Every structure is written in C-alpha cells, then in structure tokens.
C-alpha cells in the first residue's frame, strides 16, 4: 500500500510566518525535500506580494528549485494574473482554493462561493490550455471559524462543481483543524457519491486530531495527503495554534502502518532543520526530537 | 457511545518532572480534575521515595483529595510494601505494571517477566483480600526501547497470566510512543482471544500517533483510556519527547466523534493550568491554545 505525500511546507508552511525567509534558504529547503524523496511539492503561491510578503519571490524560487525527473512543483493560484505568473514561472501543477462556506469565502477571498467556483473554472480552463493539471482545494471542509458546522453534502456539491470545471484532483482541507476521523468517513462517502476523482486531504493538527484523520483518510482510499516538513505553518484564525501535520511524523505513522510514502525520514528531519534555523522557532514535529523507531509492517 | 478516561496526570504526568510540586498544588490539581468530571484518577504511586522523589508525599496527597461519591482513586504499586501503604492510605483501586520484554523488565523493575507476573499475583491477592480491584498494566506492549518489536502473542500471553492472577482490567501501554492504529487492531485481536476482561489503553504521543491510537481503541471497544490533563509526562527514554496524550485534546476528539467522556473541557484546561504554573513549562496540550470548536456528532 502507498500514498502520495504533497509537501506544502514551502508554501502553506511559510506563508503565515512573519520572519521572511530568504529565497536561497527556500531553495535549499526544497532541495533537501527533493533529496529526501518528496515528489510533489507546493513550492510557492502566486498572489499579490502585499497580501503575502513571504511569497513575493515566487518566480525566483521556481527559478532555483532543482528540476529532477519525477518531481512535480505546484503553484497556488488565486486569479488569472496569478495563473499567468505561475505558468511563466514553470509550475508543473496548479492548486486553487474554493471555500465551503459563504462567510469564510467572502472574508478570505472577497467573493461568494458561486463566484469562487466561476473563478476556479477560469483558472482551470487556463491551466488545461497549457497542459497543467489543476487541483481544487475545498477550504473549511471540516468546519468553519465563522459558520461552525459544515455539511458533507455542501462539500460534495462543491466538489461536483469543481470536477465539472475540470479539476483533476479534489483536496479537502481542514483549514482550522477541527475534524475527527468520523468526519473523514462522512466526507469520503459524500464526495465519492458525486465524483471518482483522486482525493487529497489537507489536515491541520490544531487540536491534536490531524494525524488520526490522515491515517483514516489513507484507510479510506485517499490518493494524497498534504503535510509540511517540521510541521511549520500556523493558522491565522488561531495564532497560538499548531498548523499543518508534519511530514516526518506522518511518514513515520504511515511506515509503521505498512503504507509506503517514498520518503526518507532522516532526510525530512534534515530539511526541516533548515527552516527551523531560518525561522528561529521550535518545530511542532516530534520525530526529530524523539528519534525513529525502525521497522514497519 | 462512551468511554472512561483515567486521569493519570497526578501520577504518570508528574513522576518524571524534576520540579517538585507541593502536596497542596497536587491536591488542588486533583480537586480541579474532579470538578471537571474526572471519575477515575491515578492519584499517586507508592514507591520508594528515593526512586521517585515526586511521589514521596503519596499518603499526604491521598489524605487531602476530595472524597466525592463515584470518584475512584488509583494508586500505583510495585511491591507488597507499596500495597500495604496504598491500602492504608485509602486508595480505591490498585494498578501494577508488568513489562512485555525481558530486557525492559529487568532494567525497569529489576526482575524477569516471570518474576514480575508472580509479583503481580501477590499484589493482586493482597488487594483482593482488601476488596480492591487491580489493573494489570502491560508496559511496552507496542514496542520496546531495548528489544524493538514486541509480538502481540507475547502481550496476549502476559494478559492471560495476569487475568489468571486476578486482574480486573488489562491496560496495554505504549510506554515509548511508537504504536499506530494497526497495532491497536492486532493487540485487541490477540488479547481478546485470551480474555474478556475490560481493556484499557495508555498512549504516549511521542511520535504524534497517540490520539489516532486512542480513537482507534475506542472504535475497537476499549473500556478506558489513560491521559493526563495538559499532556504532562515525559518519557525517561526520550527526554525531549512528549509523553502522555492530553486529557483535554482526547476529550475534544472523542466528543466530536460522538463519544461521551463525561468531562468538561474548560474544566480540564483549568486543571492543567494549575500544573503548568507549578512546573513552569509550556503544556503539550493544544486545546487550551487553539480554543474549543463546539458541538459533537
């Protein structure tokens, strides 16, 4: 059994960090991730530099990353201008976000959910015209900081609309880290009823449920899981809280469960140390501190 | 659906902390836990004070804890002398440990596994003679820091021997925090084949798998789960590593999964703050930092 890990540290991990990381350090971080076996990496986002200053060097990062056969770099894109930049910068794949609730969509993206789906469709068409696969990430699929509970049917309906608009993959994101494995079950059931597209999951460990959710998602047939080396990446809605699940801890749990990720754990810990040094923080990831327990089933 | 949470913060949580916590603070911590709904609390251990200085005030703690109908206090006991002290101090239940591997058993308890089972049988007989239920905790059930992998058959055989010796409950402990949900599955299968006793689990979150294991254990019919308010409790074999899963984070995940624990989450966070202040540490628990997301299924 195997699952694909999408490394999101360089994008989602860094984007909310106030300490600006140099382009050279980002490239070194990405290079170390590739050396550790990462094969899909969300390398940067093409958003307005004033909105996310940490991503202002998107083109320079893409210019410097190692081009290794089999390694696919993903760029996050929020509009037509971003897509243009991403294509020019040579991304291999595009990720675009729609949010599951009206309030969050308006606050986060300044548009209604229906407008966000139309925006996704435009990005998707442009990416396809240039031969790039597009992922639709559905934010707040597990709960909304403004509206509370999110129905699985609403998420499935959005997934269907994104599939119709050309998505090659549906990513369900627990943006605020509130979900539990039972939520994974009901979302997989609901989304599977409307599309056969590969499912990817994006979990935050904000309330210590992220790894349980990830392992459940694999059991339920997820094709890919997002994680960030070191577990970097906070949540802007809960500033003191932990964000992304950590790649090394996830890969440990998978390996012990008999699920191959293709990653070298020591290599991921080494990559995480680069960004730990740059940010001057203590990483939320635990494996680097605890040490490995070898073997898997 | 419901599960019993055994609060182990006052014993397993504190015992490896170098900062000695005053008896008054321990009693306040336990009182706050009772107020938060805790109904089974491992309050202290009756071991030689030179071996575990933090537990030197076992009698004084037991003397000061609130005696509330329905609240059961557990004392950890390692030998006949400890049992005598525990009974005199008025514990409601007794917990005694055997370890699943020879090397760990000799290093931790200074005796072979067979000798540890005989010791357990003697403690069990003494406790029964005084009308107290005894739990057999099987340490290192998920992996050993010295011998590596631990076979489910070996754990089951130990469980059978402890059941024959009068255990009223079997607790399977992931002492070094290496297990994954698939390990929970194979251990439940193996132990269920030899005894129908209630199963309790003790998980450490050393490598970020503890909560996934706990939720799986509940799905597999566990009667009780250990956790510590605030997530206090390191592992002496990995000094920088996280120990026990946190009561508030566990109770959050359970409630969102539709499993009642009887605990008030805010109350547990309040109790954890007492010990955070006393120890002067940042708690591993996340819920207090992230805030609750209300509701459950």
Number of strands of chain A: 8
How far is the first residue's CA from the last residue's CA of chain A?
11 Å
- What's the CATH architecture of chain A? Alpha-Beta Barrel
Biggest interface goes to:
A-B, 43 and 43 residues
Mean pLDDT of chain A: 95
Q: How many helices of chain A?
A: 12
What name is given to the CATH topology of chain A? TIM Barrel
Describe this structure in words.
The structure is a homodimer of 297-residue chains. The first copy, chain A, has 297 residues and is an alpha/beta fold. Chain A has one domain: TIM Barrel, CATH 3.20.20. The first copy, chain A, has helices spanning 9-15, 23-35, 58-64, 80-89, 102-109, 113-129, 152-164, 181-192, 210-219, 247-256, 265-279, 287-290; strands at 4-7, 40-46, 72-77, 93-99, 133-139, 169-174, 199-203, 224-227. Chain A has an 8-stranded parallel β-barrel with strand order 1-2-3-4-5-6-7-8, surrounded by 8 helices. In chain A, helix 2 (23-35) packs across helix 3 and helix 8 packs parallel to helix 9 (210-219). Chain A starts with a strand and ends in a 7-residue tail after the last helix. The model of chain A has no long low-confidence stretch (mean pLDDT 95). At the A-B interface, helix 8, helix 9, helix 10 and helix 12 of A face helix 8, helix 9, helix 10 and helix 12 of B. Chains A, B: InterPro entries: Aldolase_TIM, HMGL, PYR_CT. Chains A, B: Belongs to the HMG-CoA lyase family. Chains A, B: This is Hydroxymethylglutaryl-CoA lyase. Chains A, B: Residues 3-269 form the Pyruvate carboxyltransferase domain.
